Every structure is written in C-alpha cells, then in structure tokens.
Amino acid sequence: MTSRPVARATLKIDQPHVRVYEYRFAPGAETGWHRHEHDYVVVPLLDGRLRLEEPGGATRLAELTAHEPYTRLAGVEHNVINANDYEFAFLEIELLR
To answer: The pTM is what?
Structure first.
C-alpha cells in the first residue's frame, strides 16, 4: 500500500455497449493496481505525463497530448500515477461488446 492520494473516477456513461469514466489525478495521485477487463480508449484532457507501474517491477513514463486518444486491449495490468505538478485528467472509454 502506498501513501499516494487516490485518483477520482467519475462515471459519465454506463450503457450495455460502452462505459465512460473521467479520471482526475491530483499531483502524485494514483489509480491503484488494476487489470482492464475490456478493450478501452483513453482521451487525455490535458498535455502531461503519467508514470505506469507494470507487473514485474517495470516502470515507464508516458507522454500524453490533449485530445490525442490511444487504445489498449483487455488484460492490461498496471498502476497509473500522475507525474505532473498539476492536476491531470483523461476520459477512459471501455468497449463492452
């Protein structure tokens, strides 16, 4: 367990085919370890950096650009941490079918 603040996830859309969350991270906040059960798309709302802790102890820094989406397949496991000195936010769109 870490002493980092926890990112806030707000459910925006919850339909049988798609679920959308808005994630907001205070500086240094994290999601906590999780595994994605569905394919998903992330749309950053700001430019910034996220630190990704991955299984096996690997850590990498992801540079994100506002409104430039990226996609990942189900099964991704990680802890996401805001590496900026300002609040960071993105939309996560889960594809349920």
So the answer is: 0.94
